[in-house]
């Protein structure tokens, strides 16, 4: 299987994952009159399909026992369950994130949710698998916390300007962020790592991505069905709306899944070189990408007061500083 052999390639894959994770939601923003609960079925199918595709291409470039088929044959059932549980947790967090995007927009929902996820994910993953400079990681996490606070202030400034805002959307972002930070430790345990000199975890990055996305897809039968019946926004949704949707809506949902899933595979492949805590942290620079899409492409801050723009600008600065510190922690 293909894995990076230099820090430069690993960093490239982590940055690519951040771009994918920060860009996939544009596919939902581009859908007209299609509820996110219905869009999400296509998205969940998409993330699983791309994990299979990349696993059976990039994951079978060698036959030395590390390729995907060999890894699947040798994988422990407990590690498979860990990856699928991680996928189910991610899926609930991501459903809440999409709902928050629906309520508050990309520029607000992503930085708040993923900023909190960065803090939770890096800390819990590092406790399980210490790798990198702890002091620099801590400083990077602190900058992420400041960035989240600044983004919240920008949101408050929008509310003060009588823009469409709600406390409910921020609450959804916070819950999503906490849950989003909890799937990474499951992947840390499922993938190879050393504990007291003993190697544990049997899933390579491609197998881990397949089982994570499969767990996410299966969990839609619980999480997404629930939100269809008890939506956070609007009236309950029926499955008939999915089948009557235009082909373009389904295509955008699948595309969104392909984009996010590619980012996930790249992130896990890079983690085989840097460790999950580092790869996860750099991948979580996605909010900067999403916020740029929200501000520049979707004009979510058009006409916003200067104070809101100032807080948003400072959020970018602290996110950049946080990611730079985390990247430096690799060395």
Structure keywords:
331 residues; mainly alpha; two-stranded antiparallel sheet; 16 helices; 2 strands; globular
Structure description:
- This protein is an all-alpha fold and 331 residues long.
- It has one domain.
- Helices cover 74% and strands 2% of the residues.
- It is built from 16 helices and two strands.
- The chain has helices spanning 7-23, 26-29, 36-55, 68-74, 77-104, 106-128, 134-160, 167-180, 183-190, 205-219, 223-229, 240-243, 247-274, 276-283, 286-297, 306-328, and strands at 193-195, 198-200.
- It has a two-stranded antiparallel sheet.
- The longest helix is centred in the N-terminal third of the chain and has 28 residues, at 77-104.
- It is globular, with a radius of gyration of 19 Å.
- The mean pLDDT is 87.
Distance separating the two termini: 25 Å
Task: Count the DSSP helices.
Answer: 16
Sum up the overall morphology in one term: globular
As a whole number of angstroms, the C-alpha radius of gyration is: 19 Å
Provide the spatial order of strands within the biggest beta sheet. Answer: 1-2
Q: What is the share of helical residues?
A: over 70%
Helix and strand succession?
Answer: HHHHHHHHHEEHHHHHHH
Mean pLDDT: 87
Beta-strand portion reads under 5%
Largest sheet, described in full? 2 strands, antiparallel
Q: Number of domains in the coordinates?
A: 1
Count the beta strands: 2
Note poorly predicted spans: none
Structural class: mainly alpha
